[in-house]
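Task card 7
Instruction: Convert sequence to C-alpha cells.
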Amino acid sequence: MMSVKEESWKTKAAEKRSSTFSKIPREWLLDQADLDKASKQKDLTSPFIEQYLSPEEIDIVRQDSVSIVANIRRTKYSAVQVTTAFCKTAAIAHQIMSGFNYKIMNHLNVGESI
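Output:
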C-alpha cells in the first residue's frame, strides 16, 4: 500500500511529466518500444539518438557553431532548420532521460534494486 507521501510525489511527477511531454510535437514523441530500446543501450549519444533524426538534422547537429553560422550565411540551412534540429534532439534526449529518472526514483522509493 502506498503512503500519502509516496502517492503525492508520484502524482506530482506524473503531472509534471505529462505537462512537459504535451509541449513536445507529436511527431517527436517516442513510443514505449523506443524507450524500452533506449533503456537497454549503454551509449545513448549520437548514433542512438540520430536514428530519430533526418539526414539533414544529423548533418546540422554534428557541425560546430562556426560551420553552422557559415552554412546559414550561405543559405544551406535556415535558422529555423538549425533550431528545429537541436530542439528535436533535445526533446528526444529529454524523453529518454525522463523515463530513466522516473524509473530510478520509483525503484529507490519502494526499495527495489534497479
